[in-house]
Amino acid sequence: MGMNLSSGRKGKRTRRAAMAEINVTPLVDVMLVLLIIFMVTVTLPAVGVPVELPESRAAAVEEKPDQITISIDRAGVIYIEDEAVAAGGLPSALEALDRGGEQPLVVLRGDRSLDYGRVMAVMGELGRAGFTSISLVTDGSVSAP
């Protein structure tokens, strides 16, 4: 006497039920990488001209999308955004700037080793070109005395 212990399905393979869970581990990995990239790029300086800023306890300047950044490096070379301006060519370079409808904010970054007269000469040219809103950028990492 022989007994058949099988369930009656001969030769048929059983199907597994569809998995109803979502694996979020790859999503979390991608989001963490994007967060790290975002944090690194936000902390990079907006302008690529290396300038050692003077120290101050002044409040931080709010960045605006239509601002114009002018930098003066240690050697006294003037940059509008990342482009160097030829010696004596600042007035014509300022005239060539697209101002749009209203007066843009000018952010002036000067190296701490510069002569005060050099910075004032640039500010005078900015004023003569009609730029009336000028912010001076400093390093705000100074602690209280």
What does this structure look like?
With 145 residues, the protein is of the alpha/beta class. The chain is 26% helix and 13% strand. The chain has 3 helices and 5 strands; from the N terminus they run αβββαβαβ. The chain has helices at 25-43, 90-95, 116-128, and strands at 68-72, 78-80, 83-84, 106-110, 134-137. A 5-stranded mixed β-sheet has the order 3-2-1-4-5, covered by helices on one side. Strand 1 and strand 2 (78-80) form a beta hairpin. It is elongated and about 90 Å long. It starts with 24 loop residues before the first helix and ends in an 8-residue tail after the last strand.
| First-residue to last-residue Cα separation | 101 Å
Instruction: Write down the Rg.
Output: 31 Å
Order of helices and strands: HEEEHEHE
Main beta-sheet annotation = 5 strands, mixed
The helix content, as a percent range, equals 25-40%
Instruction: Round the mean pLDDT to the nearest integer and report it.
Output: 78
Q: Strand percentage, roughly?
A: 5-15%
Described by the principal axes of the CA atoms, the overall outline is elongated
**How would you write the strand order of the largest sheet?**
3-2-1-4-5
How many E strands? 5
Quickly count the helices.
3
Structural class: alpha/beta
Low-confidence stretches: none
Give a topology summary.
Blueprint: H1 25-43, E1 68-72, E2 78-80, E3 83-84, H2 90-95, E4 106-110, H3 116-128, E5 134-137
Parallel strand pairs: 1-4, 4-5
Antiparallel strand pairs: 1-2, 2-3
